[in-house]
Design brief:
heterodimer, A: 115 residues, mainly beta, four-stranded antiparallel β-sheet, 0% helix, B: 113 residues, globular
Chain lengths: 115, 113
């Protein structure tokens, strides 16, 4: 296992459509995070899982957004009724409780463009 | 709440020049501090970290010292290379938690021959 994997790398959709992204964390990492990064900005936290439990959600995560991690391994992030303002890079990260200082390892991201 | 402030970019340097990218933070307690780097088309990579006051993180010739008195974690490198061209992000994480990272806005570094 070489790192955090995200799929797809790029997604173009029309406004109002639903989209789903997938993240596969590093094996045995029980913590998984989603962030959103817009152009010229740093990543902003969206939500965090420990195993299958979603422990924290940002106010940025409106009711159109839902994230799951059903078996405590991979995670999905779904955006319903997409809006142009949802266009961004969606980053996933994972970390291990045995790792030092909660170092988070990031995937390459999924770039979403809403037309 | 927690926040991180970075100097605005882009920073343009000639190869072998000295680099400083300023980072200051606001947080309660003693957060862990990080520098991440993002190369074009790639994900964020951890560059270095420090977990307590006066700790110095270092990697690939880059260094940063955790200064609690000035709430700073400035990134430095004595001699930059073209391959260092990337966006650099300063970030913090509250101590003792598995919580989220709070990032600065990033500083783009461009190194020319």
């Amino acid at each position: 296992d070489t790192g955090v994997s995200q799929d797809p790398r790029h997604k173009i959709t029309k406004r109002g459509q639903n989209v789903t992204f997938r993240c596969d964390p590093i094996s045995e990492h029980n913590r998984l995070y989603w962030y959103r990064q817009t152009l010229g900005q740093g990543p902003e936290f969206l939500t965090y899982f420990q195993n299958e439990a979603q422990l924290e959600k940002s106010r940025l995560l409106s009711d159109r957004f839902s994230a799951e991690r059903p078996k405590g391994s991979f995670s999905t992030l779904e955006i319903q009724r997409t809006e142009q303002g949802d266009s961004a890079m969606y980053l996933c990260a994972s970390s291990s409780p045995r790792g030092p200082q909660n170092i988070q390892y990031f995937g390459a991201g999924t770039r979403l463009s809403v037309l | 709440g927690n926040s991180v402030t970075q100097m605005e970019g882009p920073v343009t340097l000639s190869e072998e020049a000295f680099l400083t990218i300023n980072c200051t933070y606001t947080a309660t307690g003693y957060p862990s501090l990080f520098w991440y780097v993002q190369y074009p088309g790639e994900g964020l990579q951890l560059l270095l970290k420090a977990t307590k006051a006066d700790d110095k993180g270092s990697n690939k010739g880059f260094e940063a010292t955790y200064r609690k008195e000035t709430t700073s974690f400035h990134l430095e490198k004595g001699s930059v290379q073209v391959s260092d061209s990337a966006v650099y992000f300063c970030a913090l994480c509250p101590t003792g938690t598995a919580s989220k990272l709070t990032f600065g806005t990033g500083t783009r570094l461009q190194v020319t021959l």
